[in-house]
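Regression report. Comparing outputs from two consecutive submissions.

Submission 1:
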Amino acid sequence: MPATHLKIAEQPDPVWQAKIHLAAALRLAVRDELDEGIDNHFTMMVPGYTDRFMILPFGLHWSEARASDIEIFNEQGEILEGSGKIERSALCIHAPVHRITGAKVVLHTHQTWALALNMLKDNRLLPASQTAAFFCGTTAYDDTYTGLADAMNEGERLSHMIGDKQVLFMKNHGVLVVGNTVAQAYKRLYRLERVCRAQVLAMSTGREIATLSDDVVHVVNNPAPGNSHSQEERDDLYFAAMMRVLDREAPGYAD
C-alpha cells in the first residue's frame, strides 16, 4: 500500500501573533479614546524571552499601528529588530517593570477619566459597582509624581509600588496596567476607564455614593463553581470580538 502522507497544519508564529495583538490593542486604544496620539506606551515581552520587549516605534500614531511596525528592544535600549526609535520614558518605565514584576504585558496611558480621578487628592477607586469590585485588592497607588521618567530608577520605583497588583494609579500622571496576555491587560485597561468615568460622574452629582460591602466584593471576585466561562476565556473572547470590530472598521493592524 502507498504510504499515507498526513498534512500537518502549520502552527502560527507566536512572535508574529504577539505583534498582531499588540498592534490591535494600540488601534483599539484610539477607538476607545485611551490614547494620546504618539505618546504613552504599550509593551510586551517577546514570547520565549524575559529580556526582550516589543513596542511601537515612537512617532507612529497608534491608529496606524501594524504588526510589521512593532520593533524589539532590550533594557539597554538596543533595537534588536526593527528600525524605529524608543521614547526615553518608555524604556525607563517599561523595561524595569517587566524585569522586576515579571509582567508579560505592560500598558501605560494618560486616559482621560482615570487621569481625572488621579488629579484629586483622594483618588481611591471606590467599590461602588460590580465592575469596580473587580479592581478591589488588585490596585496599588503611587501618590508622588516625580516628573518625566528619564532614568531607569523611576521604572524600578514604580515596579516596587505596583508589586503583585495588576493596576497602578499614578497621581497627577495616569495609570499603568499589567497582564499575562494582551487580551487580559487591554480588557483590564478598558474596564478601568469605564469604572473611573462612572465614579467621576457619580462624584460630580455631589450626592453620597453607595459602596458594596466586603462580602459582596468577595462574591463578585469568587464566582460559584461551574461558571460558563473562565476569566481567561472571557478575556480571549472579548479581545477576539474587538479584533473583528477592527477588521470591519480599521483593517490593516495584522499587516
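Submission 2:
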Amino acid sequence: MKEFTIPLLTEQDIDCRVQSVSKSKSGKVGAVLLLYKDARVDMQILDMVFGPGNWQRTHEVINGNLFCSIDIWDEEKKSWV
C-alpha cells in the first residue's frame, strides 16, 4: 500500500471551552478548560490525504460502547483495509 503522511493538528483544528470555574478559600479563581477537536476535523484530514471517496467509516455498538472504524481504499489490493 502507498504510504501517506497524516498532517499534525493546527491551532485552527482545536476548540476550547470552559468546563468549570471555581474560587478557592483564599479567593483565587481558577478554571478548567477543555481542548478538543470534533469529527469534522478528522473527516477533512481524511479527505485531504486519501480523497473524499477513498475512505469510509462504520459504527458498531459492542457491550454498550460505540466504536467507529475507519477503512481506507487500497487501490493495489482493490479492497478496504
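Expected: both submissions complete independently.
Actual: both completed, but the second showed a warning that disappeared on reload.
Relevant detail on submission 2: The first helix runs from residue 39 to 50.
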